[in-house]
Write a structure and sequence with these properties.
about 260 residues; alpha/beta; Rossmann fold; 2 domains
Length: about 260
């Protein structure tokens, strides 16, 4: 393959870089552009630069891992690669294919992706959508890059990226909140706060690992731990009531999806 140019090496960019190198991508095939010296990775064979004007060769793929608010500045120098057939893979929230077309040109090859933070431990999931000019082979290459930090799925309709953002992009925060509220509820029942938090963290983490390894659907795993007339069943009467978790999550995800659409402009 040709050179891969990574723009931004913060938490997500750094996680992706580590995943690529672990999967066998040669460090000499990667250039990292990162203005913050402390964030520039120091790995044998890896070339780093402070800014993209220092890159003279045309990369095969540019991975855009900068914050959305700095994207305009990052793209100013990168338009020169668009006419050379470079594929742009963006993981910036809210930046649409139309946005990139307006900055890089209508024929620019762009893939818009939404990863989530478990990518830091290579257990993330990313959903991507591609501009019309991106070939099947180019999508496959982007898929390989995204799978270095977890699973990768595709949607044809870009409008679905808003509910994707609401569900999986923001989703880790909901799980962390679940740990918080479980621990708080345990403390209200008399457990020491530290013990309640330890129990909640271990329970959620262990359950997530069980879910990851199991071939059974989540609903069946829930049934497996619920004895008729037992303590779990009693709690689920509350959580699965008409005013329980489902309507709360319906409202929460609708709000997040709406905000995602607003941020995209």
């Amino acid at each position: 393959m040709g050179k891969l140019l990574l723009i931004g090496c913060g938490k997500m960019g750094g996680a992706m870089l580590d995943g690529w190198l672990t999967r066998g991508l040669a460090a000499s095939d990667v250039i990292v552009a990162e203005p913050v010296e402390a964030l520039r990775p120091r790995k044998p064979g890896l070339r780093t630069v402070a800014s993209t004007p220092d890159v003279r060769e045309t990369p095969e793929i540019v991975v855009l891992a900068v914050k959305p608010q700095t994207m305009d500045a990052a793209l100013a120098d990168l338009k020169r690669f668009a006419s050379e057939g470079t594929v742009f893979l963006s993981i910036a929230a809210g930046k649409t294919l139309g946005y990139f077309a307006s900055h890089l040109g209508a024929t620019a090859k762009v893939v818009r992706a939404m990863p989530n933070t478990p990518a830091a431990v290579r257990q993330g999931i990313t959903v991507a959508t591609a501009a019309k000019g991106v070939s099947a082979a180019e999508k496959k290459r982007c898929q390989e890059l995204l799978e270095a930090v977890g699973q990768a799925l595709w949607v044809e309709d870009e409008a679905l990226m808003d509910p994707v953002t609401a569900l999986s992009g923001s989703g880790p925060a909901y799980v962390f909140l679940l740990v918080e509220v479980m621990a708080a509820a345990g403390a209200k029942l008399g457990l020491a706060p530290d013990m309640a938090m330890q129990l909640a963290r271990a329970t959620v983490a262990g359950s997530c690992e069980l879910l990851r390894q199991s071939v059974e659907p989540a609903a069946q795993l829930r049934v497996n731990v619920t004895s008729p007339g037992g303590t779990t069943a009693e709690a689920l009467k509350v959580l699965m009531a008409d005013d329980g978790l489902q309507p709360i999550f319906d409202k929460a995800l609708a709000a997040a999806s709406r905000r995602s659409k607003e941020l995209a402009g």
